[in-house]
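Researcher: Next entry in the queue.
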Amino acid sequence: MRSTAFHPINLGLSNFCTYLLSALFIAGNLILPQLCHLIPDGGRILLPIYFFTLISSYKFGIRIGLLTALLSPLCNSLLFGMPPQAVLPVIMIKSVLLAIFAAGIAHYSKKVSLFHLGLTVLAYQLTGGLAEYILTNSLPMALQDLRIGFPGMIIQIIGGWFILKKLAEYEF
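Model: Structure for this entry, 172 residues:
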């Protein structure tokens, strides 16, 4: 599975499409977790809150990525109580790190591949785990996503690759 040439788009904050696309990705990050929570421990195993943040940041840049990363967990917590407020800061930190890494890797590589997405997921999980350890002083909590959420990380990499590869075919 080779790299595909990729042209990330970085829309400004004064562009209406920035907010429209952000709203669509936030909606995805509201719906997907609700579906995953139908499975016992589905949220912890599948890590659905990060999926559309990965897609939005990788394809549409840091601004849409950060809007999605910040507003998705907040809206989910306010509307559905998930993630619980106790873990909301960690989820938001990991979401922001994901947006930064995804936008940066897409911008500098100009490619989408399983390797690039794997690097993105690994980078945000490791730095996010470190941040979680600093906040909680609990190594088991910091390693939870790596232990329990491994299927979700694989879905992010393979599902993200598939969607981003399809998006690479279209000019926006």
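Model: The longest strand covers residues 4-5.
Researcher: Noted, moving on.
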